[in-house]
């Protein structure tokens, strides 16, 4: 049963990703692919009580901050 739940979750993740990719530029889609690591850390915290250390928190903030810098348009910048 465990393998089935992983397969379903993985398949659902890919389905969502491929539905969103056409709405993004190539650069945005590449940058956004960096976000699963911090999201997995949050999932570990919420689902199995993993400890959040300063190192994990700092890395997550840096990764998600970089993703935001790459994806959020700057003022005056034309959107896609």
Give an overview in words.
The chain is an all-alpha fold. 71% of the residues lie in helices and 0% in strands. It is flat and about 45 Å long. The model has no long low-confidence stretch (mean pLDDT 86).
* Basic shape: flat
Contiguous runs where pLDDT drops below 50 for at least 5 residues: none
Question: What percent strand?
Answer: under 5%
Using the CA coordinates, give the radius of gyration: 15 Å
- CA-to-CA gap between the ends? 43 Å
Count of beta strands: 0
Order of helices and strands: HHHH
Major beta sheet, specifics? none
Proportion of helical residues: over 70%
**Structural class, from secondary structure content?**
mainly alpha
How many DSSP H or I helices?
4
Q: Could you report the average pLDDT, rounded to the nearest whole number?
A: 86
Keywords:
single chain; mainly alpha; 80 residues; 4 helices; flat
What would a concise description of this structure say?
With 80 residues, the protein is mostly helical. It has helices at 2-20, 26-32, 36-48, 54-71.
């Amino acid at each position: 049963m465990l393998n089935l739940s992983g397969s379903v979750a993985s398949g659902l993740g890919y389905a969502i990703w491929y539905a969103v990719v056409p709405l993004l530029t190539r650069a945005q889609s590449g940058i956004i692919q960096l976000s699963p690591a911090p999201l997995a850390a949050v999932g570990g915290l919420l689902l199995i009580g993993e400890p959040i250390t300063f190192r994990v928190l700092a890395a997550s903030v840096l990764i998600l901050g970089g993703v935001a810098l790459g994806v959020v348009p700057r003022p005056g910048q034309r959107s896609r």
